[in-house]
Amino acid sequence: MKDWLRIFDQNVLVPPHPQRARQPIKESTAFQCVLKWLDGPLIKQGVLEVLSEVGCCLRVSLFDVTYRHFFGRTWKTAMRPVEQLSRQPSRIVFDESLYFHTSLNHPNIVAVVEVVTEGRRPDGSLQALSCGFGILRIFGNKLESPTSASQDKRLKLYHGTPRALLHPLLHDPVEQNKHMTLMESCSLQYMLRPHPLLEPVFHLLPENLLVSGLQHIPGLLPAHGEKGDALRKPRLQKSVTWDLDDLFFTLYPSLEKFEEELLELLVSDRFREEGIPRDGGTLEILERRLCVGVHNGLGFVQRPQVVVLVPEMDVALTRSASFSRKVGSSSKASSGNQALVLRSRLRLRELVRHPAFAIVFQLEYVFNSPSGADGKATSVTSLSSVACMHMVRWAVWNPLPEAGSGKVVLPLQGGIRPNPSHRLVYKVPPACMNSKEVEQVASGTVQFQYSLSPKGHPDTLPGHGRGPEAEQQPSRKPPASPASPPALPARGHAAPQDSPVGPGLSLSQLAASPRSAARCRSATLSSPQPAGSEPSPVQAQGLPLEGRICHLEAELSQASLVLGASVAEHLQELPFTPVHVPIVAGVQARSSGSKLSRASMVLLQASGFPEILDANKQPAETVNPADPVQFNPQKEESDCLQGNEIVLQFLAFSRVSQDSRAAPWPKTVYFTFQFYRFPPVTTPRLQLVRLDEAGRTRPGSLLHLLVLADRDDSSDAGSPGFQLKFLAEPGFLRPGEQSRFSHYLAAQTLQVDVWDGDSLLLVGSAAVPMKHLLRQGRPAVQVSHELEVVATEYEQDVVVSGDVTRLGSIQPIGVYAVVKGWLHLTLANIGHVCEQRVRDSSTLPPSRSRVISNDRTGHFEGGSLLRRGAPRPVKNVVQAQKLADVDCELAAMLFVPTQHRSKGPQGAGREGDAVRRRKLERMRSVRLQESRGELSCWGASMLAQQSVRAQHARDLQVIAAYRERTKAESITSALSLAITTRHTVHVTLGTAEFFEFALRNPHNTQHTVTIEVDSPELSIISDSREWRFFKDAAKLHTPVEEDMFHLRGGLAPQLFLRPRETAHIPFKYQTFSVGQAPAEPSSEKGTDPGSPQKCSATPTKHAKVLFRGGGGKPIAVLCLTVETQPPAADQVFRFYHPELTFLKKAIRLPPWHTLPGAPVGRPGEEPQVHVRCSDPNVICETQNVGPGEPRDVFLKVASGRSPESKDFFVLVYTDRWLATPVQIWRIHLHSLRRVDASCVTGQRTRLSLVLRGTQVVRRVRAFTSHPQELTTDPRGVFVLPPRGVQDLHVGVTPRRAGTRFIHLNLVDVDYHQLVASWLVCLSCRPPLISKAFEITLAAGEGKGANKRITYTNPYPTPRTYRLLSDRPDLLQFREESFQVGGGETYTIGLRFASRQSAGEEEILIYINDHEDKNEEAFCVKVTYQ
Q: In 10 A of CB 1159, how many CB atoms?
């Protein structure tokens, strides 16, 4: 017992800040920190002269920077001697390791290392002095990301003591605070790394406890070797199982008086502190609980078991006489006092034969306050809100190592003495009132029988056993269930018949809640704080007391039965990882390309493709694609030809050797791709013109020229090929973007998708590197490629077996890449002299152009106040204009007749014609005046003049009233121009555009400025660390202020400005939405070859920032014009998925250091990866993994209706503030109608699809990706009537077993539009093999072999049979079908083709009847030698 008390008293921990306890519990992480040596003269000469026997040590403590709170326990190294300064070494070696684990994964949780010097004064007393301290960052700047680097690091030391961290002026980051003084030439060499080997012993070490590897931990075996570090590779001691029976609690003077006094004091306490009347605050005892757990001096090894105790008399009345006699005989020691008994057996499997391991008993009372006036029990709904719990007694028993069985009587403890749960305990009788003999039992006793279980042979600690008797292992995660299943009795030791194991919840757990327990107070506790206010260390360790309930003694009333039924137990989540077979990013887009062969060059040059010329009409320099590229950014920036005209020439398309299983070669194709941030490109349909047999560029391949197709699918008579141009000049590129464009060409590849122009099916994809387009000072360059067009196919096994809860047990989808052909492509870059002058704002350095000032804002230059949208004149002199000519609303009002003005402005809807009609009226008046000479018209002229004068008078009244009404609005609008600043920003998807607004207080008084932003995509940077990050990236040297803004939750932030003071307000504009209209670039035929950016119909957005001073008056206005530009996709993914379902995919990231633009760090320091999506309806996330593990990006997308497609972008970031994405993926999701078919290989399965007509008549045709396996009826072009219903019959004859996908498109042949699309999911099983054969052939350029087999018709009537093979490239039949009489035998002729490589192949031969049903299946095993 002494060992347990010593360890318990020496390891009292300071808990973390209460605010940390309210945060969600996270997974605990283990660390190892090696303190190696201390460099530098830390100890002053005066200390060495005054003190003798001077030594130096290190003290380490955990500190919470956010709440300025030290927690845990300070750990010290061994004292190292320090000699005099003249012989003082420059290094003090410690080389000690400390270990700990914590779940407070936050960057502000740090370890503070203090350097302490100890020595003796002249009088012999010890004195300790602090020589400095350092702040060791455990976690990185990113949340929940511990530093994983295992390299040595140097810790900077500061003057003073760690108590300086408690000063309120020290804000985070503390290291950069001006009050911190760095010690020159002084540092501590250390190494910090995660230590996963410590995880199996988490149950032996409390959280946040710093321990040394040399310290002996109860429950661990000593380490091997000289150093004796037991925590480097910890080994657990064997555990034994103990059984406790006949457990009795005796309370003095008696149980009745003890509980009566306890209730009276609690009622008195409630009256004094909560104001509840004594007569209305009746309390009743709801339950008496006992918590039993194993404690190793540091903490509970497992969560304590919770059982229910009942009074002895209740047991005697409710149980049999035999049990009553047993109770009576065993309770004689109580001297007639009634005791609390436990009817069931307790089994403890966590005990280790060690002096520090002890069993802790904690007696708790649960109280209930009836809410009814008549004192009846409370209702079900109010029961949980009035229950509270108090600990009244506790005891500790340390079994002797040699003990086997026996009986123990222990005194109970209480009062202010520290206990394992660190909770307030009910008082004990005063020691002065009792003698020494009585004092030991005055607080009560507990007695029980103990025995070593027959299964108590050495075993591993709980959580590491695998048998059915093993308890739940200690989890570092919060428990998923509030209660564990009841502990089962051990085999061979069944529970007594009178003590059955009760339900998994006791009444107090059903009624009490932590909140209600925290509100309960006790007047007799030794501290004024409430007994339930402080959580027990068990709860702090994530081990709730509700775990492992063994028995329920109290009889449930009707209310409690209803309550128990209403509380549903949470299911416990299994450690399961969803199986998403990852698609490796950067692999699918790669297709091997090479330079053109000489034979291909001859054919292409003779075909008459247009020649690429530079600006001087000279042929562009040809670059060999096999030559390495030396990229020099300075040479690109200093090039006088800043305009880059990128030319893409699609020349030809050659196909692979004919495969009978493959789809027929398309007649027309078109290409889709996206270059840089230009709009996505979809080329016109190009005709494939086949050359003669001499046009073979490689064995088995045939060259087809690409010619622009007309409407009737006939080739154009012009030159072959198709050419596109992209002009990237300073007028298109933003300031500073030229360097980014050069890096894009140097590092990225262009992915081109090839489509069948007739069936609209994807043929494949090709990827071409663009690094050869770097001119490096040359006027023009061109490079020709021969690219593989690769199609990706997915296959899956038929049988999916395995346990879904085990990772890797399910067979994944197989991914196969098939080469469909070769694309002949020429790329060129032609340099041009920039004629367009860049605006003044673009020529400014980036650091100056990112600061917007309101000192030179616009002012009113005179003129009409009604010209709101007109451009500003250069001079302050303007020409006067009539109000009716500049304001349409006023002109409409003047045109309205007099009799209609009172009824409302009926002519307001014709404002456009108001001015014209008014001029016509004036012209009519002029003509009347010209006819004055005529006597007959003199009277009419006078009347007309009077009418005009009256009209002018009325118009002047209308104008005066209108001016009076709009005067205030016009003057306010004109004055606002004086404080308005206009700025234009060019943004790209996902990239944060950073700028600062220099706000100046124009008044002589101070103001609290409220900043109002009307756009959710424009935000103020309130975090100083984020502000500093963007300033460093922009190379901006304006000052950074800490706590600049007063944040008020969801309200607008505020800023304090002194008189005439100027403050820089940081903003960032970042959008994750795509709002562009697709546009096709110009081609060489039919249209003018303009630049594609002229067709880019990207919308222009506007944002407004209003700075309001005191009283709500604006002092400045910032109007932003946002020019959105299309993003540059690094990779394109295309998925086909059934309609109205969810697509779940995992895309695996390449190694982070290979990503373009990834930050450069030390090896092993992997950054935190963040992902965002342009579509808010797409779930996109990534998970934190261990160091060195691959990272996956998980997507969950809802598909639409067929044949719709959904396009969105996924952005990958490696910086904390999501400033610039390192990868941009473009995702295409095609929705198809799903059709499932279960069939047998070699046998035809028939399906029927329903076609629904559109609003007009269409000529359609069905196309399939595997025409040899799937056929349709009708085969050719047929008419789909409008709004009609028609059947499309489908026949499927698979050639091989497994699960595969076949695409089926219904295309309008006149307009080449997709009408409907299906995804046929085949689940094919192999046939029953009736015969097997074996043959050996020569591999290489052999001629093959002819063989024969026989087949006998088993039917009495003649039959016609059809022959099929799953490998038509290796086996052909002499006849595709044959007829044989009833009972006759037919000889089938086989022709086996040779194969280049040696090996074995199994070829299946299908013999089908006239309906294509499989009659027989033969297997031929061919060995190629």
A: 12
Q: For residue range 560-598, list pLDDT tens digits in order.
A: 333 333 334 555 555 444 445 556 555 444 445 555 566
The DSSP symbol for 951 reads H
Specify the residue for token string 């290489």: 1340
Closest CA relative to residue 604, chosen from 827, 828, 824:
824
**CB-based contact 48:54 (threshold 8 Å):** yes
Measured between alpha carbons, how far is 116 from 57 in angstroms, rounded to an integer?
A: 5
CB neighbourhood size of 442 (10 A)? 19
How far, in Å, are 76, 155, 623, 665, 729 from residue 187 at the CA level?
A: 18, 5, 55, 72, 52
Alpha helices for 124-234 (secondary structure H): none
Residue 1072 near residue 1177 (C-beta atoms within 8 A) = no
Supply the pLDDT for residue 594.
54
- Asked if residue 1274 has a cis previous peptide bond (ω within 30° of 0), the answer is yes
Q: List Cβ neighbours of 373 (8 Å cut-off, separation of 6 or more).
A: none
Question: For residue 567, what pLDDT is reported?
Answer: 39
Give the residue from 661, 648, 676, 838 showing the smallest Cα distance to 745.
676
Which helix (H) or strand (E) segment holds residue 397: the answer is strand 387-397
Backbone angles phi, psi at 1238, to 5 degrees: -105, 120
Integer Cα distance of 1152 and 379 in angstroms: 60
* Mean pLDDT value across residues 295-308: 89
Helices (H), 606-641: 633-637
**Which positions ≥6 away from 402 have C-beta within 8 Å?**
none
Query: Could you please report the per-residue DSSP string of 999-1057?
Result: EE--SSS-EEEEEEE--TTEEE---HHHHHHHHHHHT--S---TT-SB--TTSPPEEEE
Cis preceding-peptide flag for 1114 (omega within 30 of 0)? no
How far is Cα 353 from Cα 400, in angstroms, rounded to an integer?
Answer: 8
Residue type, 1143: L
Q: Between the CA of residue 193 and those of 147, 216, 232, 811, 998, what are the distances in Å?
A: 7, 22, 12, 36, 44
Q: How far is CA 1127 from the centre of its chain?
A: 21
Could you give the CA distance from residue 464 to residue 479 in angstroms, rounded to a whole number?
Answer: 17
Pull the structure tokens for residue 861: 């230059």
Amino acid identity for residue 590 in this structure: R
Beta strand pairing status for 80-81 and 153-158?
unpaired
For the chain, what's the residue count?
A: 1425
> Distances from the Cα of 1255 to the Cαs of 961, 1280, 1281, 1283, in angstroms?
57, 10, 9, 6
Residues 996-1009 have pLDDT tens digits of 998 888 888 888 89
Of 1049, 1050, 1065, whose CA–CA distance to 1009 is shortest?
1065
CA distance 989 to 991: 6
The one-letter code for the residue type at 588 is Q
Of 365, 357, 433, 358, nearest in space to 393 by CA = 365
**Contact by Cβ (8 Å): 1154, 1251:** no
pTM: 0.53
Helix, strand, coil share (%) of the chain residues, nearest 5: 20, 35, 45
What does the block give as tokens for 904?
Answer: 């409302």
Report CA torsion sign: 595, 596, 598, 604: negative
- Crossing angle of helices 911-930 and 888-895, in 10° steps, is 50
Distance CA 1335, CA 441 (A): 95
Q: What pLDDT does residue 71 have?
A: 92
132: left (phi over 0), alpha (psi -120 to 50) or beta: left
The predicted pLDDT at position 633 comes to: 79
Angle (CA) 562-563-564 rounded to 5° is 90
- The token pair at 683 is 């080329």
